[in-house]
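Entry:
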Amino acid sequence: MLRNTAQMAFKRTSASSYKPDDPTALYRKYSATNSGPKSLWFHQGQLLKDWFKNHRAVKDVALELPTGAGKTLVGGLIAEFQRLTDNDRVAYVCPTKQLAKQTSQALSDYGIPNVLLINKVTSWNPADRAKYETAKAVAVTVYHHVFNTNPGIENANLLILDDAHAAAGAVVNPWTVSINRSSIYLDLLSTVREAFSPAVYDKLTRDDVEGYSNDVYLAHPSILHEQSIEIESVIQQALSTGTLPDGQSYPVEMIAGRWDHCLLYASRNKIEIRPFIAPTRFHPEFDDPARRIYMSATLGEGGELERAFGRPSITRLPTPEGWDSQGTGRRYFVFPELVTDLGSNTAAATKWVSDTIAGQSHTVYLTPDTRTADALITGDTIPASHTVMKAKDVENDLSAFTNNDNRVLLLTNRYDGLDLPDDQCRLVIMDGLPARGDLQERFMTNSLGCLDVLNERVRSRIVQGAGRATRNERDYAVVVILGDDLNSHLNRSDVQLAMHPDVQAEIDFGLEQSFDTSVADIDDNIRIFLEHGTDWADIDKDIQDASESKHRRSPVGTQELQSAARFEVQAWEHIWAGDYEAALVDARQAVTELRGSRAPQRYAALWNFFASWLADRVQHETGKASYNQASADFYKAARKAARGTTWLTETATPPRTNSSASATDTDPLDDAAVTAVIDYIGSLGRDSVFDKTVVSIATGLGETAAKPYEAALVRLGKFLGATEAYGDGNATAAPDAVWIFDDLEWTTWEAKSESKPGGFISPDNSKQASGHLRFITDKRQSQPPSGSHGFLTTPHTEIHSSARALAEDHVFGVQPAQVLDLFNRTVRAWRMLRTMGSTPTHDDVAALFAEHRCLPSQWLADLTTQPLKDYPLNDEKTAAEEPAPKKRLLPKQQ
């Protein structure tokens, strides 16, 4: 028997085919019935109109919206607009499952139909998947389901890529084979042993090397080409026998047959094989969509986004007016290792951190690597009263952390994708510089010594990590900074200037509160801040005023890095395709963009190395001899730009590409100094002028008075072949003396000749000496040459703990006696030189200066034996002689 019409189970189809005029009109309709805000904020509407009118047809567009600026609503409206008007399949991609859930709920509140597609693909509801595939709903998913050997999200027309600044690892992961030491590490290393210097290979293969090493070495890519069949054999055999680490079969499948299109990095514990830039053009699930929208609170301007996603060009929409200076909440940065009672006492500092954690019910503890995290678990930092949780414990939601007291959420290399507003968390601890991700990142930071190119990434991690517990305008949290490298990094003026004005002001305030301050004062300050009452309100006004006077400024070299990014991406696309001639063309152009003095020269060294390898590869394939010379020229340029680093000598270069690396080659820096010395001979004229100059220098260096000593240092620089030598010109924060050797070396001096023996190097001295190269960078608007140095001349042989935390790697301590010795050797060389007449030959001068150890390669080696950060501490002296803690800036409790 048939049911009557009123009881039919058929669904009636709607004739509605609503197509909004633009995304803002769409929200006017949805806001009438949804659970979201009643209307768009002005800046949201402006950004949507800009995209719709000017950038809708652009394939790659980036939107920067600070935390709290309604980024999810903007992305959701673009997604829904395209779904309705063009019947687009849209995927909204998030970095974590937990954020995907939050996003899905937010879109539902806004009235945007969506389906949550996370976890294993086999667990997906078929109906939900069909809604995405038929454009009935927006799919909310994670990066893993786009960047995968078997992606779950296919045939998208539009990708909304959220938190794009944090996606670099997820993007390249499908093309990264990671081999730990317990697996086939030694077999694989043996296969490519010729790619490393003998000393490096011995260090990597020996089991009796004690301690942890953060060193990362780059295998020469030419050897990967020569051994590609053997590499494939070793890995495939491991795959067939089940000895390959878990999960590595997927990237092996992606790379198979292209091992020589990759780079190989090796540390003591791991090998990683991967392309330098992810070949996303060859990944249809990412490349095929007509549009990709990248959204982030911090996008940067130096090409980091393009390199991370493998896109030659991404159009950036400007941050809406007003939001570039709009802050989100308040952070009180505390630097305990700069505090009087803690800096020189590791045990006391550890106890203070533990006690601070114990005083809070919820703490987020961020570390850059598993080694740091593991040490925390086994050490005394986490109080026994608190339970440690890890990322896997909050993968799906945060309730296990937020709904239980006395919890520490310990995260490794995870600075994004975590929202803990208001009382959910008031304490964030950042332990160590967040630049220790994969081996390529560690190579760039430690071996190449080029943090500049990663500055956007590191800055984003610091800002995002510090902001995990400040998610709205009224929110507030204490941020504790630990680790010498992170302390030193945040003290750099160029690093601070690139941050949001609010963060600049907060860091300045935190540093001021930490220097020469007692533990008791710090504890009181934290209490006042967390009470967030009237006492704090007056202080907060000071920070607001300071913020209004600050402006964000990109570091020198940012534009050059941005310009080079297009050619870098294209070069690696050609490498992946096996078109080495085309790759060489783009690599050459990247080198050209990085050639200017404003560009980071150590990064230019890497690209000259790539170009040398590519030219050699093209010569090998074509037989054209001209490429041999090109390879040699690029390699020579790489050596010049890599001054002060050892990675190039640790990467064994095949003989055919090393024609310019003869052991008899002279150092370009020495050549430049000798040329300048010859030019300077005529300036000194008669013996009486020369003798008067020598007496002036000797007198100045023999005195303790600052001005004569500094003037003598300037003149000594000219005697040593500096093309420019000058003093501070009475400018604040300027070096006392600067020696410029063309574009090969800058040497800066901070002279503390008036200091008395027996004291210690102060934080101010350390900060001044560490900042001098940046002062010259700002003045000349060009980057310092690779391997440039800063010297602090002082009779002190010990250092204040806070000063050591602030000392940077390029700064060295020099005793006044060492400077006098260098001067005496130089004068002897000059007296001999003046007997050769007015036109001595270059070779004669070079030999004479070498005999007296007056060439830059010699005296730099003599003066760089004592890094400032390695000076010994003297706890008793620090306690007895340092100035008493200054009066706190925060008011005392009444």
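The mean pLDDT is 89.
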